[in-house]
Amino acid sequence: MTTKRNEKDTVSFTVENRIAWVKFNRPEKRNAQSPPLNRRMHEVIDELEFRDDVGVLVLTGEGESWCAGMDLKEYFRETEAKGLGGTRKAQSEAYRWWRRLRWYQKPTIAMVNGWCFGGAYGPLFACDLAIAAEEAQFGLSEINWGILPGGGATKVATNSMSFRDAMYHAMTGEAIDGRKAAEWKLVNEAVPLSKLRARVLEIATVLLKKNPVALKATKDAVRRVTEMTYENAEDYLIRAQEAANFFDDNGRKEGIRQFIDEKSFKPGLGTYDVNRGK
Question: Whole-angstrom Cα distance, residue 231 to residue 223?
Answer without folding.
Answer: 16
